[in-house]
């Protein structure tokens, strides 16, 4: 009864109650937002407090400024190296570092934890966060906070760089993250999201971490215009994260490429997957995802361009597969996937599979190995193309057979299969192969 009376008396409190206090990553109630705006309008404009941190000034430390700051204050940090232990931002402030402002973890602890809503952190160099095998230490951790911006910072020799936990409406933009640990086990992720939503990760450059960008239990978020290169495992690792999009990113020379797993309704567009080489490396690994779209990407010089296992109803459209070992590996348990208007050029194997039974389709793609003809000159081959070579099936069952790849024996196998296709999957046939490379 007491809670009901309080809510009736204060519309702002009622809105907060409707959202669970604002501490979980659900969507805010419109009533709360409208009431808050009305309250601010009645209060009228107020001048934000400004605090200047200067080792030679009256406020000599970031910790002291955070303790003095009023909600909405701006804290400007002058150049210098600040070793202040673990800092906590527990009220809405803007924390801005001038060029040369360094927050140093001294190799012993996490540097900055944000627990308040409406916080901005900009312009700092964060460095020296030690590896820990019992806690996920980060240079910046956002813990159950909304409407946070982390932008224009540099992260050097940190375990985890930026870590979001149960956060919402966060922007991580234009940061540079450089991991220096030699192995995957000693490294944390560059940008790590757990159980968060409505996050935008844009314009970041991430190198040398375990996973460049990692999302787990994340919803309605965007990863765009980032460069993730030379990480010990994945450039992007994406698990249990529905209704997300990643676009216009470059994922290059990561030890295992990119993995998207156990997810639905994902848009993967206009990315570049380049030079991801290794015994277990993929341009893009799709594992148990559904109802998603892979469009206008470039898969260039990867061990495997696109690998699909247990993935259903995925449209793979308007992509370029260039000079990969295997352009596409699609397993028999991947069903109702469509490969349409893609270019397959200079790949060792265009398509590989592990079974003659298949329920995915290819239609209207360009294959540089197609040797058919176009008598009616409509730009579409008159003879279907079978992209799965017999030798590919042999390699799937006995990988050392790759040693024979350029041999005369393999050329005989390919010729025999073209004349009498009895072993390659009948379903994996492009009935309308185009005669010329598709121009985007």
Outline:
The chain is mainly beta and 440 residues long. It folds into 2 domains: 2-43, no CATH class; 133-419, 3 Solenoid (Pectate Lyase C-like).
Structure description:
The structure is a single chain. This protein folds into two domains: 2-43, no CATH class; 133-419, 3 Solenoid (Pectate Lyase C-like). Helix 4 links the parallel strand 1 and strand 2. It has a 13-stranded parallel sheet with strand order 3-6-9-12-15-17-20-23-26-28-31-34-37, with no helix packed on it. Helix content is 13%, strand content 40%. With 440 residues, it is mainly beta. The radius of gyration is 27 Å and the shape is elongated.
Please specify the SSE layout and strand pairing.
Layout: H1 2-9, H2 11-18, H3 30-43, E1 50-53, H4 62-68, E2 73-77, E3 80-82, E4 87-89, E5 93-97, E6 101-104, E7 112-114, E8 119-122, E9 125-127, E10 138-143, E11 146-151, E12 154-156, E13 160-165, E14 168-173, E15 176-178, E16 191-202, E17 205-207, E18 213-219, E19 222-224, E20 227-229, E21 234-239, E22 245-247, E23 250-252, E24 257-264, E25 267-269, E26 272-274, E27 282-295, E28 298-300, E29 304-309, E30 312-317, E31 320-322, E32 326-330, E33 335-340, E34 343-345, E35 349-352, E36 359-363, E37 366-367, H5 390-397, H6 408-419
Parallel strand pairs: 1-2, 2-5, 3-6, 4-7, 5-8, 6-9, 7-10, 8-11, 9-12, 10-13, 11-14, 12-15, 13-16, 14-16, 15-17, 16-18, 16-19, 17-20, 18-21, 19-22, 20-23, 21-24, 22-25, 23-26, 24-27, 25-27, 26-28, 27-29, 27-30, 28-31, 29-32, 30-33, 31-34, 32-35, 33-36, 34-37
Helix pairs in contact: 1-2, 2-3
């Amino acid at each position: 009864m007491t809670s009901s009376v309080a809510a009736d008396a204060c519309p702002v409190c009622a809105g907060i109650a409707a959202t669970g206090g604002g501490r979980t990553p659900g969507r805010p109630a419109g009533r709360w937002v409208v009431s808050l705006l009305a309250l601010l309008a009645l209060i009228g404009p107020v001048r934000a407090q400004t605090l200047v941190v200067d080792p030679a000034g009256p406020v000599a430390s970031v910790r002291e400024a955070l303790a003095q700051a009023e909600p909405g204050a701006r804290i400007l940090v002058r150049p210098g190296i600040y070793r202040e232990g673990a800092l906590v931002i527990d009220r809405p402030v803007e924390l801005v570092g001038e060029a040369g402002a360094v927050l140093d973890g001294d190799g012993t602890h996490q540097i900055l934890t944000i627990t308040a809503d409406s916080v901005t952190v900009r312009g700092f160099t964060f460095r020296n966060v030690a590896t820990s095998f019992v806690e996920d230490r980060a240079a910046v951790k956002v813990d159950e906070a909304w409407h946070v911006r982390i932008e224009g910072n540099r992260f050097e020799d940190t375990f985890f760089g930026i870590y979001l936990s149960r956060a919402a409406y966060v922007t991580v933009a234009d940061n540079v993250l450089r991991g220096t640990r030699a192995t995957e086990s000693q490294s944390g992720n560059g940008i790590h999201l757990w159980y968060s939503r409505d996050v935008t990760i844009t314009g970041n450059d991430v190198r040398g971490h375990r996973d460049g960008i990692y999302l787990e239990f994340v919803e309605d978020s965007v990863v765009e215009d980032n460069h993730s290169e030379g990480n010990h495992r994945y450039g992007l690792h994406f698990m249990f994260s529905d209704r997300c999009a990643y676009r216009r990113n470059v994922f290059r020379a990561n030890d295992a490429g990119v993995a998207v797993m156990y997810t639905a309704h994902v848009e993967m567009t206009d990315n570049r997957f380049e030079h991801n080489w290794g015994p277990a490396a993929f341009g893009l690994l799709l594992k148990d995802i559904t109802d998603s779209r892979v469009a206008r990407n470039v898969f260039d010089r990867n061990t495997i361009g696109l690998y699909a296992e247990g993935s259903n109803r995925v449209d793979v459209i308007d992509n370029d597969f260039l000079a990969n070992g295997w352009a596409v590996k699609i397993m028999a348990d991947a069903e109702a996937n469509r490969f349409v208007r893609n270019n397959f050029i200079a790949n060792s194997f265009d398509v590989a599979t592990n079974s003659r039974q298949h329920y995915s389709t290819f239609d209207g793609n360009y294959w540089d190995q197609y040797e058919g003809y176009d008598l009616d000159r409509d730009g579409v081959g008159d003879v279907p193309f079978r992209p799965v070579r017999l030798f590919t099936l042999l390699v799937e069952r006995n990988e050392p057979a790759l040693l024979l790849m350029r041999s005369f024996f393999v050329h005989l196998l390919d010729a025999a299969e073209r004349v009498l296709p009895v072993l390659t999957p009948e379903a994996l046939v492009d009935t309308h192969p185009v005669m010329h490379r598709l121009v985007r």
